[in-house]
Specification:
With 454 residues, the protein is mostly helical. It has three domains: 22-197, Rossmann fold; 200-318, Serine Threonine Protein Phosphatase 5, Tetratricopeptide repeat (Alpha Horseshoe); 320-454, no CATH class. It is built from 19 helices and five strands. A five-stranded parallel β-sheet has the order 2-3-4-1-5. α11 (280-294) packs antiparallel against α12 and α15 (361-375) packs antiparallel against α17. It is globular, with a radius of gyration of 25 Å. It starts with 6 loop residues before the first helix and ends in a 26-residue tail after the last helix.
């Protein structure tokens, strides 16, 4: 029954599915999955790459996104070398731990004289495996889904065509509906297996949230309100439910609680539901009510912020860029006063992108730098895995494509080294959806002072 499904139950189904192929012979394995299941499958692969993984195979995660073959292989080699640099936090120093435990000699180091390509990665992995006491285990190179460019399937096919080491395998996730690697299943020389698992993550998540509510006082107005929020969101995907009817119930329950936050939340959730149904006028009406209720209330800032960002998206879809820019500036200003560095960064990033699309490079540059300035207040791991990279990409592209003074570009690169890491060029590869057609060749940047970015 759907009411019995839990997240843990779904996770163990994934684990049991992997168990069926763990000791079988294969060169590449593809999870063939629905989009809603990708996150938990990726989490499974991440856990197996950590000390708490239960399978004997040793998992490695390759983060580099595929672009051109030569560039990709060079960047994979650079990422590989990064595994052997000493991290700031010693608990993440895998090589240091292996040396400390006596598995590796203190003098062990990667042969950096090798050509920067994927074959060198395989050579060094094989050498590492021969040193370590993992003779029967396989090394699994996991390539997670991402914004890979066309040609990735052909690259895999060419690698599989070669005589790969028998104990080094590939793994990835191939989403149903937009498969990238379907032809590999019929590879002429390699053994490529497809693995599927029947998951019901929507029911698992719903049950988890209902459990949290029911363990308190299931019939109180606040619990009924929380459940109705979930019902409204279900109505956006279930034909038997009416968004109009369910939002009316939600708003009635929100007002019965007679709290500003519940009233505003009811309008915000309603706005999100109507937005998902492309009923923009209804959505805008609710979002404006949520903003009006919360804009002067400090404790309601998270609701106000979400409502204002949603309004920006609504008006931007109607090409009302001035109103959207005003919304993002409001969020940036209030985020600064609230000490909310992440959303200050995000609001300025969106301003930069809108200006960038409109070929207004002066304000685009300024907004990108403000976004980066806000982002410096975030932990390194957040900067490396967030939209901080998009702001960096916009600033860097503007500087390079406008033939800027060398000191401006060098200043950016130095700050990227400090604030992102020396692999920042690899990480920025994932932001290449920024369209170069919006650029022009005016050299305005050469005559403008670089904003301070401390």
């Amino acid at each position: 029954m759907a009411d019995d499904i839990s997240i843990a139950h779904e996770f163990y189904k994934i684990r049991n599915s992997w168990k069926t192929i763990d000791h079988r012979k294969w060169n590449m394995m593809m999870w063939v999955a629905d989009y809603q299941d990708i996150d938990i499958l990726d989490k499974f692969m991440e856990i197996e790459a950590s000390p708490i993984g239960i399978f004997d195979s040793i998992f490695f995660r390759i983060q580099t996104l595929f672009s051109k073959e030569e560039t990709f292989e060079k960047e994979v080699w650079e990422e590989f070398l990064g595994w052997f640099t000493v991290p700031e936090q010693s608990q993440y120093d895998l090589i240091g731990a292996l040396k400390k435990d006596g598995y590796l000699d203190d003098s062990y180091a990667v042969d950096t004289s090798l050509s920067p390509n994927f074959n060198s990665v395989l050579i060094e992995l094989q050498r590492l495996k021969n040193i370590l006491p993992y003779k029967e285990e396989n090394f699994i190179l996991y390539f997670p889904p991402g914004l890979h460019e066309p040609g990735f399937q052909q690259w895999f096919s060419e690698q599989l065509q070669k005589e790969l080491p028998a104990d080094i395998r590939f793994a990835t996730i191939d989403p149903i509906g937009k498969r990238q690697f379907d032809k590999l299943a019929h590879h002429k020389t390699a053994i490529v297996r497809e693995l599927s698992v029947d998951l019901n993550m929507a029911a698992a998540m719903k049950n988890a949230m209902n459990k949290d509510s029911d363990e308190s006082r299931p019939h109180t107005p606040s619990v009924r309100f929380q459940k109705q929020v979930r019902t409204v969101m279900e109505a956006t995907i279930k034909e038997e439910l009416s968004v109009q009817d369910e939002t009316e119930i939600l708003i009635r329950l929100g007002y019965q609680l007679d709290m500003l936050t519940s009233k505003a939340t009811a309008h915000l959730v309603s706005a999100i539901a109507f937005f998902s149904q492309k009923e923009d006028e209804e959505a805008l009406d609710h979002v404006n009510q949520a903003i009006e209720m919360t804009e002067a209330e400090k404790e309601a800032y998270p609701i106000w912020r979400s409502a204002t960002l949603l309004k920006a998206a609504l008006v931007l879809a109607k090409k009302k860029k001035d109103i959207a820019l005003s919304c993002y500036q409001d969020v940036a200003d209030k985020a600064v006063t609230q000490g909310d560095a992440f959303y200050a960064m995000e609001a300025y990033r969106m301003k930069a992108f809108i200006y960038f699309q409109s070929k207004k490079l002066d304000p685009a540059w300024e907004a990108a730098i403000y976004s980066l300035q806000a982002g410096t207040n975030l932990p390194l791991e957040v900067r490396r895995g967030s939209t901080f990279l998009y702001s960096a990409a916009i600033a860097y592209q503007i500087a390079n494509d406008n033939d800027s003074k060398e000191e401006i570009i060098l200043s950016l690169e130095q700050r990227f080294d400090e604030q992102i890491g020396d692999d920042w060029k690899t990480l920025l590869k994932g932001t290449e959806t920024i369209d170069i057609k919006y650029m022009n060749k005016r050299n305005w940047l050469n005559f403008n002072k670089l904003l301070e970015w401390a």
